[in-house]
Amino acid sequence: MRSTVSIASSLLNVETERRLVVSPRAKLFAVVLGFLNLFPSGFAERFLKDDPTGYYLSLFLFIHSAVYSLFALSYFTGNSQEILYKVKIFPTPSLSRLMFVVVSFLRHPFSIALLASNGFFLAVLFRNAAPVALTAIVLYLLLMLCISVLVSTIFLYLESKNQSARIALVIVALLTFVIITSTLVFHTESFVIGVPLVRWCANGIQAAKAGDVINVAKNSIGLFVIPLVVVFIGRRIV
What pTM, to 2 d.p., does this model score? Predict the structure, then answer.
């Protein structure tokens, strides 16, 4: 019986070969995407610099989390879904499938471009305080890891129940539109600030700005533990 890691690695090799055939210019498009992503981030800089409460930071992180989630679901319903459908006839451990979906998305050129450009923006935003910049980047990456694992688990759960993941894509898109519209038009701050993962990331960055190491650690632990908990639960339901 092949190991879990070995099976996941084989699936990743299949995904790489397919991507090279289907999207040979993916890396070039990813560079363009990363460059374009800097423009809206640059526009948000003036709000983030003067943000004592962390509200705009929470909104910034929420929007990027929503975009990342939508991109992940779009990717899963295409490339990953096709590969998983073809290997259904083989005994594939749930953890192997989960590892494959998460890693294949995280290493996709578009995903790397978004993470790199946003990490660069955070480094520029907090350029006057290196510890804050480093903390912001680490917390942001942990937030995106949480989202990747969570969305991957939801996708695989829907697949195991023979439900289309496009349902989740539509729901996430609608919720994102409603929350962002409510926040910007009606100024209902509680929607954005109340999202746990976003709140922990924003609070951790705000704590770093205030030099509060204990709160930085508390929020970091929350973001670090969530992916482990989701994987533990996910391997039993997918």
Answer: 0.89
